[in-house]
What does this fold into?
Amino acid sequence: MTLLSVENLAIDVTRDGESHRLVHDAHFSLERGETQAVVGESGSGKSLTALAAMGLLGEGLSVASGRILFEGQDVTALSEAAHNDLRGSGIAMIFQEPMTSLNPVRSIQHQLTEGMRLKLGLSRRAARDRALELLTEVGISDPERRLKQYPHQLSGGMRQRVMIAIALSCKPRLILADEPTTALDVTIQAQILALTSRLCRDHGVGLVLITHNLGIVARHAQNVAVMYGGRVVERASARALYNDPRHPYTQGLLASVPRLDLPRDTPLRPVPGAPPDPTVPLPGCRFHPRCPWATDVCRERVPPFEAEGDHEVACWNAEVASESRRREGVA
Amino acid sequence: MASYMLRRFLGSLVVMWAVATLVFFMLRLVPGDPIAAMLADAGGAEEIEAMRRSLGLDRSLLVQYGIWFGNMLQGDLGNSIYGSRVPVTEALAEALPRTLSLSLLAFVIAIVIAVPAGILSATRRNSATDTTVSLLAFLGLSMPDFWLAILLIIVFAANLQWLPAIGYVPLSEGFWPWFSHLILPAIAVGTAFSAIIARMIRSSLLEVLKSDYMRTARSKGLTPRMLMFGHALPNAMIPVITVIGIAFALLISGAVVVENVFAIKGLGRVLIEGILNRDYPIVQGAVLVVSAIFVFSNLLVDLLYGVIDPRIRLN
It folds into this structure.
């Protein structure tokens, strides 16, 4: 059974009686033990998709259509109580901001063990023993001492390790990691990412890795879904996406990542323009105002999602864009 | 933490000294002569002079201050210079338990009402419950305590005759007599306090509920009870405790006024009579005690921070 399958998900925000669509069409899926990356810039709807799966969409936000199947069960249709049962033990989440994601007035021990005591029914002692194991596993030295400490006594990297330990603590089948390394030092980023992905693999946990950095997912994800303006625009295996990005936006993202295998003076090319404002209606492809290949049809009609093998893309001009890139690459 | 406590304690002593000094000199700046008040035009110039000398009021202000301060350090606040000439400490020792009983009972009642009310209105924001609580809080804040006191007497003492209207019975004579005499004044004093705390808990909780760590806690699938009492409240109470410390002064001053309505001879009564009679030692002593209560309740609040917030305790 597919572990997680997001199907045609749409999320609306309603404020002061006015409703806007923030996520138009998110879809991707992953199997147990796999890593799926969801890539896109701020406001592309990737975090909202994860929060919808957790049932933690904030005030005014709601799933408008589509389904999120976790082990075959549509979680968007669950009651709050049933969804709460799933949190932690079925689906766990790692958040972006380790500095503010831990409760400042509760000890690490409390924050790490309370879920286990509730969800796994462990005694105080058993939960503490498992907490020590988990801290060791996420690479925290002197776990005995750390358990007694409070978040402000830990560095950002250590706090994120604690977050990973918390996410793993109730033996979930799926972890949603929402930009887990964005707030960290560059040197720590790679460690945390490698740790997260190794632990998920070792424990057979599915991982959805949400990031704006295409560069960091190459090594850790089997599959990548690229989101733009609330829509998944390209979906492929990580290898296929890097070797042959078809959507102009994906190409733009890749061109803006610094690479070591190119000459040092190769200029980085940013994607011009800004992401679309969700409150302003935009017909056709949502990327067309920024797209170098945009034609009339792009301005009028939403491109359908077309598959070529495992590589899916939603672009009217994917052929042209991809052909041009190949020529450029050769030249 | 130990040095923090010591610093705060020494700081409190300095504040106490400043208050005592200020009160001493301010009283002497107030128009009105205690001798004139005592003799009420009856005595001649000689008698006035003799009395002035016997009370030490003929010496320079600094000498008077020195004597008073030296005696105070030894626990001697002097004698009342009016009427019975009782020692000030005796008058205060009689009045203090009444005011403290009243204030503490008012405090307990206020907290018992405010905490659940604040939690309810924060967790059910913009619901009918929230509106009701806000409305009641607004009402409670707007009603003058002495007016509420009179209203309570009319309803529960005069009309329903459930409770005594006036007076005070010490706790040593049984809980119910003590409680039944104090409950009405305590409600009158505590209502505004309760309203402030309930509003404060509401706004503080709303802030906390939006925080990242609450989202983390929710993502663990904790029960609503664990979320509220394990995560939200411990954080939300930090600013509330500050307000409790400051509002405690309001409670004491409320008690001073309400005591008069219920004819309880507490600090308020002592203070007001002292002022009317220009009874310097009594006023000085009473103000000193009130300010001590205020300063040390704030000290207590600072120490509570350490208990509730590890960021203070461990730095």
